[in-house]
Amino acid sequence: MPKIIENIEQKIFNAVVLLIRKHGYSAISMRMIASETGIAVGTLYNYYSDKEELTTTVVYLSWKESLKNLQRIIDQEGAPREKLHLFLEQLYEEISQRRGIGSELMKHDLYKDEKFLEIQVTYTNIFRSLLKELEKAEGKLFEEAHAIRIQKHFMLITINLVNEFIEEDGENVRYLKEIADKLI
Amino acid sequence: MPKIIENIEQKIFNAVVLLIRKHGYSAISMRMIASETGIAVGTLYNYYSDKEELTTTVVYLSWKESLKNLQRIIDQEGAPREKLHLFLEQLYEEISQRRGIGSELMKHDLYKDEKFLEIQVTYTNIFRSLLKELEKAEGKLFEEAHAIRIQKHFMLITINLVNEFIEEDGENVRYLKEIADKLI
Amino acid sequence: MPKIIENIEQKIFNAVVLLIRKHGYSAISMRMIASETGIAVGTLYNYYSDKEELTTTVVYLSWKESLKNLQRIIDQEGAPREKLHLFLEQLYEEISQRRGIGSELMKHDLYKDEKFLEIQVTYTNIFRSLLKELEKAEGKLFEEAHAIRIQKHFMLITINLVNEFIEEDGENVRYLKEIADKLI
Amino acid sequence: MPKIIENIEQKIFNAVVLLIRKHGYSAISMRMIASETGIAVGTLYNYYSDKEELTTTVVYLSWKESLKNLQRIIDQEGAPREKLHLFLEQLYEEISQRRGIGSELMKHDLYKDEKFLEIQVTYTNIFRSLLKELEKAEGKLFEEAHAIRIQKHFMLITINLVNEFIEEDGENVRYLKEIADKLI
DNA sequence: TATGAATGAGGATTCATTCAT
DNA sequence: TATGAATGAATCCTCATTCAT
Predict the structure, then answer these.
(1) Do A99 and A159 form a contact (C-beta atoms < 8 A)?
(2) Which residue from A180, B171, C148, D146 lies 20 to 30 Å from D164 (Cα-Cα)?
(3) Domain D51-183 falls in which CATH fold?
């Protein structure tokens, strides 16, 4: 008995975010998504060609939203180091909000997907422009090989802080800024 | 006609390490393990109650071995900072050798397992004693909350370097030491 | 906003003929038919109660058209044996033109359908009148049981020649006439 | 609750023959086979890598058995024409016994399978040697293009006689011999 | 104790059919 | 009347687990 479902993509998005949080990315099945959304399995396939497309899209959109917020920090006026701190706060906030989804970007199998290359590149560009500002303002110089690792690891560390030192947000963010000031 | 299998656990360990390296943790099946070891599937269940216990045991043993090697570094004579560098080199080496196995510790589901708590604690203790030596030798002081995060993240970062910046071992190790000298 | 679709049945017929030719009878889906015709799936169900009715109707109409052409051969003036040859040429031509559709008559499930009984009967009558002419002209006599089998098998053989000895039309038609002259 | 199933391949063979007879080759599913045999789906996959392998093997074995019986006819002493008649009787008998299975060889999709090439070739060779004997004994000469078609069509026609003129075995076989004597 | 055939729930995916719009 | 999104049973296939041998 077909009915028109409103906001179907949003519904799927929310359900998958929830399910990833609850069971982990690789443990969720199409049936689970169907039952969580209240949408028939077949309907999911009207919107996504297969399971992979569905799940990667959710992770992708989640990160895209986060990156938009991070970009906003960079676009503000202000002292570079101040911005770096704000950036880390926001990064923590984003990953914190999306808990289980965050870590998926670090799993190797998702790297292959073109969509995630875009996410990686965008994230890198945002961080890079921040480093550039710092170089100019503070007369520093960051080697390429070093910079690329630093960027990646701030994401990695933030994900880990969120996942493992739960309910210690204050301490976590303070730690992030502290190591940032030492490393950058 | 039952036969006696010698060194069953060692055989299983070797086979699973090999299989994880070749196919990745989540792609290996009981059948694969059986065929790789030459032991019947049913027999595997005489030694491990289920697949999870088998695989987590292998990961556990693999890390236990690594930790023994790391402990050996600490037990040597030498300047603390020198030891820190050796420790990081060895950590990189261990994770590098066991590639696929190392990263499993990053996956959230393994954290729950009691066995891994032991690994975490042992690792932490090793690192902690290193920090203590440094505090004494260099007159520094590391806050608990800070120290625990630093320790965890060196493991995390090393795993990531091994997995993502493949065949850049020299650059990776140099980076590890560099950030260690800034952070510790 | 409903629109009036002209010549719906013709459109469907053309599309399905095309699709059977391209993908084979059992590989076509209602969606494919909808997309090929530009008519919505739901609309197809206003004209045919289910998929089977739709497809069998198409096969039925295709054969009906063929039979009309074959009848035309019989209605011409001319020597009976000459007509027999023309009949076989035309039969080959018809099946050749409708390739995938022709063979469906060979599949047992379509035999059950009442529509195909009509096709069988009409075909039989056409062939029968040809045999009658030959009996009269050449002083032969064909037993009923024999005649009915002969008729059926010329269709069968023609379908097989078209499907299996592709691009050997000349040889195929020559063979048809040759065995006809021996058998009839 | 695993038990040892005896004659599993024979059981599967029988069930599939039955199911093809009842529902047709392309209508049978793995579930149907499982439920008809009383064997779990998974078990079927211990014996055949996939559905296609299972079903084609059944058809293949069925024909292989038939061909053995046909070869036996050829190997006997006797007048060639007498043997031709015996051959046709046996061909009718074989196809009659295996009803639904017979026709599968004529469906185009099975032609691709290597196993069926072997069947086709063997059948052709048997028939060919019969024709050779006839050529020698009766001073006839059969063109290659003609012979190949004749061979194929005797199988086709026999299948059709069995399927459509049910319970008219006497008439059917008489017809077969009659057209054989005219065509060969 | 060791074996591995047997199990069957569960995986992703398809598609004829329905019905609110 | 025409639409096409929604449905869900059914498809093939996998694999951790069991247990008769």
Answers:
(1) no
(2) D146
(3) Tetracycline Repressor; domain 2 (1.10.357)
